[in-house]
Amino acid sequence: MTLHWFDLLVIALYMAGTLGLGFYIANKARQDMNAYFLGGKKIPWWALGVSNASGMFDIAGTMWLVTVCFIYGLKSVWLPWVWPIFNQVFLMVYLSLWLRRSNVMTGAEWLETRFGKGRGAELCQWVVVIFAIVSAIGFIAYAFKGIGKFAAIFFPWHWSPDTYALLIFAFTTLYVLKGGMYSVVLTELLQFVIMTLAAVAVGVIAMSLVSPEQIQQATPNGWDQLWFGWQVGLDWQGLLDSANDRIQSDGMELFGLMIMMMLFKGVLFSMAGPVPNYDMQRILAAKTPKEAAKMSGLVSLVMFFPRYMMVAGFTVLALVYMGPEIKAQGQNFDFEQLLPIAISQYVPVGLAGLLIAGLLAAFMSTLAASVNAAPVYLVNDVYKKYFNPNAEAKTYVRLSTLMSLVLVVIGVGMGFMLSSINNIMQWIFGALFGGYAAANLLKWHWWRFNAYGYFWGMMSGLVASLVLPLLLPDTHPLYAFPALLVLSLAGSVLGTLMTPAEPMQVLCDFYRQVRPWGFWAPVKQQVLAQQPDFDPDTHPGRDAINILVGMVWQLALVALPIYLVIQQWPEFGWTLAVALLSSWFLKKNWLDKLKD
Q1: The whole model's pTM is what?
Q2: CA quadruple 94, 100, 102, 108: dihedral sign
């Protein structure tokens, strides 16, 4: 499909405006590293929250969501637990408060708050730097593969997907390198507004063109049902046989077992706190701990309804009108192309340009966030600390620009070697982040856990997650997670017990500043001995209840727009009631009780 000239004009004007905005605010952003990477901690919490939501509204992830919604129907609302999306609930309830109280610039720098200074703490910082760089390269490759597949459908020059991706990467990298965090946040606010308008329009178009009866005829029994058993319970035989092949290749026949594994991994991963990427960066950029928590809560509130309205809209259009075309291609059809093909066939001129501009904006948000978040670890935690601690601020910013460029080049090289969005997504969220969980869970909740335990736990998890795809290429990362967890946990515990505990004063300072709950009794007693009027103000029971309600609230926000688009009104009404009731509960038991 070749875009209409008006759509191309809309895209060109948008891209030019975005680049112009990035350059306009560049001087303010480049004053020093704090301004470049954290916006000087002066950006309002709502702007950070919308920016974070825009960064998560990525094009590769949206293509994957349309694919799984097409194949699994309402049951697909559970599948983003593989990331897991409910980590935002843990962040908003308590972890953003804990993290922001540290008042540092990076996750590696945070480790000095927890473990003090010394050989062990330095090893910890090095392993976090390595993890941040590896995960950033993975995200860049993920975005590269997604944007290439997307662009190849629309643009008229018949180049390969990787060539299109290379050109769009070059453009996007310009404004990211120039403006830092200010550029990222301000342009993402604009991008989110465009994306929301386009997403709602797609949902409305789908509702006007597709009836519930047409959806029922095009889908197997159970497609429109949220709940599930051990089996996925969907049989596309006779309707679209290749969908059954996709279910088998995804390893989703035992759907109940997969969701249990996602929940098990997701809870441990969420309790470990954010990985060192753009999510953590926005928490550290908030003005206060309270604003950091509100920012994390806003992400779910503003992102899910427009995103899933668009996902459901394209899904039902593809189900009803593309069925014969997909069936004719058989196993050769690439389900990850559903989104761009649906745009090309069913979105009118003008809106198509706006939607593609919005999705390109979403891609730019993802890339910008990843590229902006990682170099600070190399510059602040390596170059500044070990090589040139007294350089001018501009020197650090210039080096940050160079490191960003290097990471993009490496990520693009990795993207050239990948064949599927799903492959890189499963590796990042299943294996790489799986090896991260144990050590980072223990660092918050166990006083005896020390720097050497953290180092060996992270190293064992990181090495195992990198080796896993080579040794067991056909093993689903979720099934490998227990082994990754055991290896990382063994490294964490053995490394801790075979080395001395951290100095009590370091632990007391950390406990007094961050106030975590968990196994901190000896440290709490010591703090109270030094400061009898100290109140840690911890409430794990209340946090646990808020997390459970928050997960229900988030699930309702995901299901609500899908029920709306497929026009199942009783289910829409019940889901809306659940969303409103859980929102009221969270306001009373979480938001109203937040304090700095």
Answers
A1: 0.84
A2: positive
> What distance in Å separates the CA atoms of residue 528 and residue 518, rounded to the nearest whole number?
16
**Three-state DSSP class for 446?**
strand
Looking up tokens 């290429």, which residue turns up?
473
Residue 585 has pLDDT above 70, yes or no: yes
- Burial (Cβ within 10 Å: 0-12, 13-18, ≥19) of residue 498: exposed
Ramachandran bin of 210, using left for φ above 0, alpha for ψ from -120 to 50, beta for the remaining angles: beta
List helix spans (H) across 73-118: 87-90, 96-101, 107-115
The pLDDT tens digits for 109-150 are 778 888 988 888 888 878 878 877 877 787 787 778 778 877
Burial of 221 (0-12, 13-18, 19+ CB in 10 A): exposed
Task: State how far the alpha carbon of 323 is from the alpha carbons of 224, 243, 328, 347, 564, in Å.
Answer: 17, 11, 9, 17, 22
Show the CA angle centred on residue 347, arms to residues 201 and 315, nearest 5°. Answer: 75
User: Which neighbouring-strand residues pair with 444?
Assistant: none
- Residues 418-458: tens digit of each pLDDT: 665 555 655 565 556 666 788 889 999 999 999 999 999 98
Instruction: Name the residue among 88, 38, 100, 542 with its Cα closest to residue 291.
Output: 100
HSE of 556, CA atoms in CB hemisphere, 13 A: 20
**Residue 441: φ, ψ to 5°:** -70, -45
Give residue-wise pLDDT tens across range 356-407. Answer: 877 776 676 667 666 766 777 778 778 887 788 888 877 877 787 788 788 8
Rounded to whole angstroms, the maximal C-alpha distance in the chain is 75
